[in-house]
């Protein structure tokens, strides 16, 4: 069994910072692309940032220059450093990963989500 667990969400004032983590566990042989998505109330889920196993990175225009995605392959973990946070960044943030499993098979997994609230 494979699972992704996010952590690091919370309440922060505008202009503040948070760091999200996404840890994969279970029968993982390789993690391909990892990504962060977010979903605000009443809106569709949108991609925030992606990072391939070769560390090619793409950001949504709305977070360029403020957010940084990274990964630690030895720990099967991805991170999202969020700086200069704005109220419009308020959302549930989800981790997503394309994972090859020990014993065969490859699936896309989602974490349970972590709430980020930016408010004064």
Description:
The chain is 0% helix and 60% strand. The chain is an all-beta fold. Strands 2, 4, 5, 6, 9, 10 and 11 form a 7-stranded mixed beta sheet that branches. A 4-stranded antiparallel beta sheet has the order 1-3-8-7, with no helix packed on it. The relative contact order is 0.33.
How far is it from the N-terminal to the C-terminal residue, by CA?
A: 41 Å
User: What is the count of DSSP helices, taking H or I runs of 4+ residues?
Assistant: 0
- Uncertain segments: none
SSE-based structural type: mainly beta
Mean pLDDT: 97
Q: Specify the helix fraction band.
A: under 10%
Number of distinct beta strands:
11
SS strand fraction: over 45%
* Integer-rounded radius of gyration: 14 Å
Shape: elongated
Describe the main β-sheet briefly.
Answer: 7 strands, mixed
From N to C, what is the helix and strand string? EEEEEEEEEEE
Offer a few descriptive terms.
120 residues, mainly beta, 7-stranded mixed sheet, 4-stranded antiparallel sheet, 11 strands, 0% helix, elongated
Give the topology:
Blueprint: E1 2-7, E2 10-12, E3 18-26, E4 28-39, E5 46-51, E6 57-59, E7 67-72, E8 77-82, E9 91-101, E10 106-110, E11 114-118
Parallel strand pairs: 2-11
Antiparallel strand pairs: 1-3, 3-8, 4-5, 4-9, 5-6, 7-8, 9-10, 9-11
């Amino acid at each position: 069994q494979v699972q992704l667990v996010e952590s690091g969400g919370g309440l922060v004032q505008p202009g503040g910072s948070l760091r999200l983590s996404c840890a994969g566990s279970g029968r993982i042989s390789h993690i391909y692309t990892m990504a962060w998505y977010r979903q605000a109330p009443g809106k569709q889920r949108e991609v925030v940032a992606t990072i391939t196993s070769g560390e090619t990175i793409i950001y949504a225009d709305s977070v360029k220059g403020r957010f940084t995605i990274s990964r630690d392959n030895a720990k099967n973990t991805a991170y999202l450093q969020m700086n200069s946070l704005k109220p419009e960044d308020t959302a549930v943030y989800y981790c997503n990963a394309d994972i090859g499993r020990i014993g065969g098979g490859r699936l896309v997994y989602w974490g349970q989500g972590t709430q980020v609230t930016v408010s004064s």
